[in-house]
Fold:
Amino acid sequence: MNREMTNRIRFIIEDLLPPVLKDSSLFLWAAKRVWGEHIVHLAEFRARAPFLTDEEYAELYRNHPRVHAGTDNSKACIDRICQSIVGESVCDVGCGTGALLTSVRNTNPGLARLTGVDFVIDDAAALPGIEYVAAKIEALPFATGEFDTVVCTHVIEHLLDYRQAIQELRRIARKRLIIVVPREREYRYTFNPHFNFFPYLHSFLRAMYPIPKSYQCVDIGRDIYYCEDRQSTL
Structure:
């Protein structure tokens, strides 16, 4: 299933179903028909967010089924990201399988360095010209301003300390920072292990405070695309 399809499903579940139904035992019963007891584990995971150990966090993600093949990004978001790359070095934080980096490399053949970062890189495809680093986003092992463009898609919504993560992304980005998050609402039972929810563009802009002079924040098919120029913060 691709991102475009799941965004259509999310529209029905998140925006058309009333909250009283979404949080009900009836919805839970229906959701169990699709994902079994995992839907309960996800609800408990969010409820216990402030108290989770690193081992519990990693265990859920190891057992969480992959919904999208290759990437969580829609084609429209991938195209926008590839067109927004500046400079000669790119770091994709939360790279997953490396699918986005592959698209970036194919559309920007002059890049000198492509780096993918994830806390587990076992799923990353071994491709020529792309290096992978296992690390947590809250403490990235790179120098300040080490990459011209830093990209982070579908990661911020998973992090308890997302402000520290944003601070780290800004620290290692020399020219441009690009972030993509889903535009979604929080309910008790969802199919994603998300901690943070951004139903509107201004909801996400609050998370990015302080906002630099040069930035973009737009809705791309139920995903929020945010891009800021780091030079404008100097």
